[in-house]
Amino acid sequence: MRSLCLFVTVLLITAVGTVAMVGAWLLPETVLLVRRIAGAERAMTTAWTGREIPEAYPPLTGPVRLRLRTAVRDPGTRTDLRWMTASYGYGALVLLALPLWPVGLVVDGVRCGLLRRAPVVLPLITRLADLEARWSQALLRPAPQALLAARVERLAATRADAITAHEAELRRIERDLHDGAQARLVSLPMRLGLALRAYDRDPEAARALLVDAHRHAQEALTELRQVVRGIHPPILTDRGLVGAVRALAGSSALDVAVSVTGGLEEGPRPPAAIEAAAYSAVAEALTNAVRHGGGRRADVRLERLRAGAWAVISDDGHGGADEQSGTGLLGVRRRVAALDGELTVSSPAGGPTVIVVELPCVW
User: Fold this and answer.
1) Element housing 170 (H / E)
2) CB 64 within 8 A of CB 25
3) H or E element, residue 90
4) How far apart are CA 8 and CA 87, in angstroms?
5) Which among 267, 363, 240, 241 is positioned nearest to 307, based on CA atoms?
6) ∠262-267-272 over CA atoms, to 5°?
7) How far apart are CA 143 and CA 75, in angstroms?
8) What are phi and psi of 283, to 5 degrees?
9) Residue of 314, 311, 301 whose CA lies nearest to 339
10) What are the CA-CA distances from residue 37 to residues 23, 80, 106, 146, 227 (Å)?
11) From CA 363, how far away is CA 352, in angstroms rounded?
12) Do the Cβ atoms of 191 and 212 come closer than 8 Å?
């Protein structure tokens, strides 16, 4: 009944607009208002039952004709209208509950307060509310084709994010090679050539040049190894996610405690892409904690779930982590989203910072 009055008002406005020959242009706005009414009902039903009712609406944007066509063809519009129409019937449950309130206060007040017995009238109101919530939940659930369309749209967005993250990773690798190992390797033949020319006339100078060239070769090799580790750490392949995270924790400047539950260490390993995404999330979180968090301790929890893997990274720093201020966490979010996972960041001012990574996979 609370949504019914608004719905009747919307219909009256649309009917008057149609008579005035502008009703077709009012239809998209009417559909948006109906969506808000249905969204409010979903929120109240979710709060009452504890079970979320998903929404699956295509955006009403663009020219008026496109918005009109989208509003008419949207399965969600028919779902909302079906719920609104049905609410004329079961909305009368609210009218039945109204006279029960004063009766319940008197009858149950006497039974509970004086006779010390269980109430009999007020529970009826709860049952009526449960019945209305069940009907609303069944009627407001989006059609399968709407859920599929929303799913396809989300996958298209995560695919675009994955491509963007991949291109950013390629640019990072190219920059690291160009500024580091490539520059050292280019200078190496020059130093060796100078050493060869100075060998006969000044052996000591040639020896110094050879020592310098050897140092540059070692530094170039170290930087190449770091680039390779950034692409896919060899330790992740050799020791798996648990071993790689423990090695990462051991080399961190923080005091890191790693806990493993759910049989992740003893059972089968997750797919390589899942391990790489979880490892990159842990590495980025620990790196940020050292550089920006200002904390001394961090905890990493790895858990095997029935339908995936779960990683929780927390530190005792001062918090304030912002994904938009850098590319690290944003890149991890895109990588996790490409695998249909979720990344949750909680970092209030003053700390602590908690990062939760959920990655689905089949064991």
Assistant:
1) helix 144-176
2) yes
3) helix 75-90
4) 12
5) 363
6) 100
7) 7
8) -65, -45
9) 311
10) 20, 9, 35, 18, 53
11) 32
12) yes
Task: Tell me the pairing of strands 297-305 and 342-346.
Answer: unpaired
| Mean pLDDT, residues 30-56 taken together | 85
Nearest residue to 355 via CA among 260, 276, 283, 291: 283
Query: What secondary structure does DSSP assign to 20-77, as a single string?
Result: TT-HHHHHHHHHHHHHHHHHHHHHHHHHHHS-----------SSHHHHHHHHHH-HHH
Q: Which candidate, 19, 15, 57, places its Cα nearest to that of 36?
A: 57
Integer CA distances (angstroms), 207 to 154, 195, 199, 220, in order: 62, 7, 8, 20
Residue 13, pLDDT score: 61
**How many angstroms separate the Cα of 203 from the Cα of each of 73, 200, 250, 303?**
85, 6, 45, 61
The two three-digit tokens of residue 313, written as one number:
């990274």
Selection from 330, 302, 293 nearest residue 161 by Cα: 330
| Distance of alpha carbon 217 from alpha carbon 219, whole angstroms | 5
Choose among 317, 240, 314: nearest CA to 278: 240
Q: Which band of pLDDT confidence, cut at 50, 70 and 90, is reported for residue 327?
A: low
Distance CA 345, CA 292 (A): 15
Q: Is the peptide bond between 234 and the residue preceding it cis, with omega within 30 degrees of 0? A: no
User: How many Å apart are CA 337 and CA 359, to the nearest integer?
Assistant: 9
Q: Which residues are paired to 258 by β-bridges?
A: 300
pLDDT given for residue 363 in this prediction: 67
| Res 258: pLDDT | 92
Of 85 and 227, the structure prediction assigns the larger pLDDT to: 85
Structure tokens at 257: 């405690």
Best CA proximity match to 41, nearest among 97, 74, 86: 86
